[in-house]
Amino acid sequence: MSDYDLIDADDVDTPGDEWEELDVSDDESDRIARVQDREFQEFRKRIKDADQFKVEASVFDDATLGALYKLVQDGHIRAFGGPLSTGKEANVYLAASDGDDVAVKIYRINASDFRAMRDYLDGDPRFEGIGSDKKKVVVAWTRKEFANLRRAQAAGVRVPNPIAVQRNVLVMEFLGSDGERAKRLNEVSVENPETAFEVVREYMRRLYRAGLIHGDLSEYNIVVHDDEIYVLDLGQAVTVHHPNSREFLERDCENIAAFFTRQGHDATGEDLLSYVVEPEPEP
Ligand SMILES: Nc1ncnc2c1ncn2[C@@H]1O[C@H](COP(=O)(O)OP(=O)(O)OP(=O)(O)O)[C@@H](O)[C@H]1O
Fold first, then answer.
1. Is the CB of 176 under 6 A from ligand 1?
2. Which SMART domains does the entry mention (predicted)?
């Protein structure tokens, strides 16, 4: 962990736990709030000063810092490593936790294309009535990614294990080793494209049968970790109820078929689509 810029959880611990049992007076709770506030300010400063976040200060509005602080207190993050990706909507960082390394995805409240996000959320019965408040939309989006990861996992699709979600911050299992992120399909030479295609095809079918469509599936959102194929980035995944779900699924099928055809395994979007939507056999 020597390459981590350590932000030690001990430094930002609040006295909360052992005081919870006590019957604290108003004066005492004011004092606790002041201590917590001071510790939060220290945490805030440390994050803002940390090298790996310097260019990204805009990502960390105070509410995001509050979310990170809570995740540190809860033991999900112990120290931040460098950025794994700086995307349009979100940045992903490597971090150490009390257990294995984790990936921390931070959605930007300001830079996010929240109108496009809303269009995806609109057709999703899980997020009915979300409205158009920018922060609420991004927070709902983050929760959606967490929920989608869980659902995919339950359906038997390999995805990073979702660990915690706090406002616009998602903590998940880090896929990779020694701090190096797992390679995307477009970055590896696929040794056996037929087998890899069959795995991806099966994942797509499992997702569909679990009522989900990825919506941005391609060689850029599929990685190879420990010789297994994993699917990333389920933020925009929609349920089959979404008015554009069929269009998204067709696009996913076209992307995947085109990629594997380029790898030497002929596939068509149409065939893939028929496979994915084939009704489940009666038990
Ligand atoms: N759990 C993870 N473990 C390892 N690397 C990850 C993890 N999650 C994301 N990454 C890395 O970060 C990149 C971006 O992640 P993701 O696709 O989830 O975010 P995004 O902001 O939607 O990206 P983009 O804007 O490029 O589509 C991934 O391609 C991958 O390399």
1. yes
2. RIO (SM00090)
